[in-house]
């Protein structure tokens, strides 16, 4: 129970990696606030945590809306106390050729993946300064370290997350606030399931062969799991990583090293 009685907020916690992170934090004793633009999915994850003996609350959260973020963080403070851990897991990923990559898609991706993390960090850090410290974990991507075609806005946003992480870690380390990012490789989640057709088109692979393609090219010969990411989040949230800040940690089975 490395996180006993710690207050943790997870954005995008209603499904995929965010859901796994929420459940794993609760297993380690954290009081978990599951947030998601899809309120019903956030509620379902919170209920799952409670049914397994954990402590959880849920809220609808639009990470692009600063007023909504502020209101949610104030409610968290009222219910559980000051925030100790914040995980920015909300995000979108859309594969499309450059000339089909509209301005609207660019703006939407940047708003959710990068601006959303900036706005959430601002509210989280306010409480962490009051609390005497805390840990923020921002979700970047392997595509935040190496660019790939048909992925312009996503790559740019995830590169930006690493820059944001490094800047905040420098500014607030003296206040006991650690800020790190995680760079997953391919993790078989609902987000990826929605993209297999577009990725297959990009690589000239049948959609049902896309995951086999990834398994073959990854040195570990398997896809990442939600648990792989969630367990690293727990480590970065805990005092076990007290001297780690400003890092962008790869979780990709050896697919990319930098």
TrEMBL record:
Alphabetical keyword list: Oxidoreductase
UniProt-recorded Gene Ontology molecular function terms: oxidoreductase activity
InterPro entries according to UniProt: NAD(P)-bd_dom_sf, Sc_DH/Rdtase_CS, SDR, SDR_fam
Pfam family, one: adh_short_C2
Keyword Oxidoreductase among record annotations: yes
Highest taxon of source: Bacteria
TM spans (from-to): none
Gene Ontology biological process terms in this record: bile acid metabolic process
Signal peptide: none
UniProt similarity note: Belongs to the short-chain dehydrogenases/reductases (SDR) family.
PANTHER family with a match to the protein in the record: 3-OXOACYL-(ACYL-CARRIER-PROTEIN) REDUCTASE, 3-OXOACYL-[ACYL-CARRIER-PROTEIN] REDUCTASE FABG
Entry protein name: SDR family oxidoreductase
